[in-house]
Structure formats: C-alpha cells, structure tokens
Amino acid sequence: MAEIKAFKGMRYTSAAGDLNTLVCPPYDIISDRQRENYIANNPYNVIRLELPKGGDDRYKEAGETLKNWLNGDILACDEKDSIYVYEMQFSANGRRKSLKGFVSLVKLEEFSKGIVLPHEETLSKAKADRFELMSETFCNFSQIYSLYMDEDSSAYSLIDGCSRGIPDMEVKDPDGTLHRMWCVSDEDIIAKITAAFADKKLYIADGHHRYETALNFKKSLEEQGKNIPGSGYIAMMLVNMENDGLVVFPTHRIVKGLDGFDGGRLLDECKKYFDVAEAPGEIRMQAALNTGYDDGKKVFALYLGAGRCYMLTLKDEAAVKALLPDKSDAYCGLDVSVLHTLILERILGIDKENMAAQKNLTYTRSREEVLEAVDMDGADCAFILNPTKVTEIRDVALASEKMPQKSTYFYPKLITGLVMNKFSD
Questions:
Q1: Cα dist. 392→42, 69, 329, 396, 397 in Å?
Q2: Which CATH number fits domain 4-247+411-422: 3.50.50.60, 1.20.1050.10, 3.30.450.40, 3.90.1530.10?
Q3: pLDDT at 376
Q4: What's the pTM value of the predicted model, to 2 decimals?
Q5: What are phi and psi of 77, to 5 degrees?
Q6: Are 226 and 335 contacting, i.e. CB atoms less than 8 angstroms apart?
Q7: Closest to 4 in 3D by CA, of 100, 82, 80, 76
Q8: Do 287 and 356 touch, CB atoms closer than 8 A?
Q9: 264, exposed or middle or buried, with CB in 10 Å at 0-12, 13-18, 19+?
Q10: Within 10 A of 425 (CB to CB), how many other CB atoms are there?
Q11: Would the pLDDT of 125 be above 70?
C-alpha cells in the first residue's frame, strides 16, 4: 500500500531571522496585501518562493531566489533523513483542540491504484500555476494534508512517543494556532513507522491540486527521458482519521447573476424535494442546522436577503440517487450532492462547467460574507451548509469518486515554511 520514507528536510537557518516571520498560511488564501506585509516583515519569508508575483519570469525568479538562499545559508537541508512530527494546538467551535501527525515523503501513485485517494474535484488553472513553480524550483514548499485509518492507534502511538520533549520548531499564526514540530532521525523508529504504513491507504484531505501537479510533473519528466532524483515522491502531512482534533468547516455557496431570478419561485420549486420552514435569525438557523447534522438529515439554509432565511430539509433521500444512478450511495448522500443536484443544477440551471468556472456560483467559509453578498453586493441568494463528516469523505474516496469542488475545509490549515522538500540538487 502506501510507501513512505524519511527525507532530508529543507529548513530555515538562524541567519534568516525569527521563524515566526518566515512562515505563512497556504498560498491560496493569501491576498496581495497580506503577501506584501509578510515580505515587508522579513524579506526571506517563504511566500516569495511559494507565491511568486510579477510577469512571465516570476517562476524563474522563484527558482533563482531559492538558489540564492541555499547558497547564502538562509535555507539548508538536514544532514540526516528524518520524519517531522507536527502538532497544531488551536480553538474551534468554542473548544481547545490538538491535532498531531507527521510529515514524510510518500511515493506518488495514480489514483486508479487505490492507494492514494482523492475526494474532491480540482480546477485546471491552479494546477498549471503549481506545475510552472515546480518546474523551476524542484521543491514542495508545502505539504499535502492526508488522512489514514489507524483503528488501534498503533501508528499514532509511535508518532506521539516522538513528541514528548521540547519541539525543534514552534510558531504561532495570526489565528492563534500554535504549530510545533519535532525532527525525528532515529532509524529504528523511522523503520517501525514506515512498516506501519505498508497496509494503509491515504485519503487526501487538502492539496488535490498539488498532488495532481506532482503526478503530471513526474510524467512530464519521464516523457522527456529525464531522471530527477526524488521526483517520484511528494511531501505529506499524515494524520490519523480517528484523531479527535480533526475539524472540518463547511463551505457555503453564493449564487449571483442569474437571469430572471425569483426567490419566491425558487422556494416553491424547492418544496418538491424539501420540507421548507422559516428560520428568522442566525440563532434559529444554526440550531436547525445543528439538529439536522446530529440527526443525520440532509438540511441547509437558503438565504434570500433582508433577514429572510429558510431551512430546507430533504424529504426523500433516494431523490439524488434516482437522478444519479451511476453514483455511489456515499456520493448521493452528501449535503453538497443534494444541493448541487436538486437545486443548483435542476432548479437553477447552473451546470457543472458553470460551477467550476465560478460564473454564477462562488464559495466562502465565512457566514458573514454570505449575508453581505446577498444584502449588500447584489447576489441572488446563498446556501449555508453543515460541514461534511470525515467518514463521508472516506466513503466517497473508497468508492473511487470525487466530491464537487469546495466540499470541505479542513481547519486549521498547515503552516508553510517549517520544513520543505527539495527533491533535486
């Protein structure tokens, strides 16, 4: 099954400055203004490598910057092959939580082999960007976030035992999440962890674009007859699926720019598939969402502006299966599948290409942004969802299917810059 191995991680040296000023959140959630602030705070911030800006030469400039930092002792690769135990301590939903896993290399496998499994569709533009960056830097600056099943916690026990002392690295991000990392180079421990994964599948939680880019890059090198050391592996953060610290937030949908949109007509047409009930105020709406989630019902909120909010509860759970007979029960039972199939596509006429292009549909994790989009920015309506359950992600992946884009938002996000994978000298 999954083949993992230790590696000589590339890390910042003390010459680069305070580590808190060198790391950054994932590149795809950073605004241009935030990027400027990171660089102003420390010119060696990893954002210059992970998110180069400028013209057509920006990727080449990132490659040159990386070489300069390596030659200038700003970055250096560890002397020993290691795995890197990674813990995040954070607050979510009013509770303090801890999530612990480890970073290692994982052999790249085609999804068809059923060893590394995706759960979500991807967008081509993001993959093209990552491909160009990889072509110039031969690096993974950030890790793929993946899950594994570990019912007896045997693998986790090995990892947990490596993180009892003082961490080798520690930073706190702007959200208050504490990121801690321990470098583990003990060959016996690494061998035991490697052996523990010989029978495990991996489920990608976050980083589909980067994983598919790495597959495409590997194929491109093979087609050119190039043998680049390490290009057959990618850096991953591996987390036990049973970990109590796993948190998935929902990603809400904003509908805009539909010709002749009529909220009253939408409500009437929804009644064919859903029980519709008014839910004035955020407190009542959230209570209804929580109850539906706990009861295993398919329920979400429709917001039409000016405080008009309605709860939509699916009447017949076979309704999606009837329209998508070739899809698994796991796929048809997802809240996002219910919303996309019965309302966005069938009632509002927003097809899959439109959704992927975000022409009439945009996505956000922020409920405040949802309300503002309808009340102030002229959006037609919005749908507020419950989070996807981790077990649902697993079941869809096992069925060799992918959820619609933006079905999950794992929290917190991995920080970029603690350890990186330089897979070619």
A1: 41, 43, 10, 6, 9
A2: 3.90.1530.10
A3: 95
A4: 0.88
A5: -90, 140
A6: no
A7: 82
A8: no
A9: exposed
A10: 9
A11: no
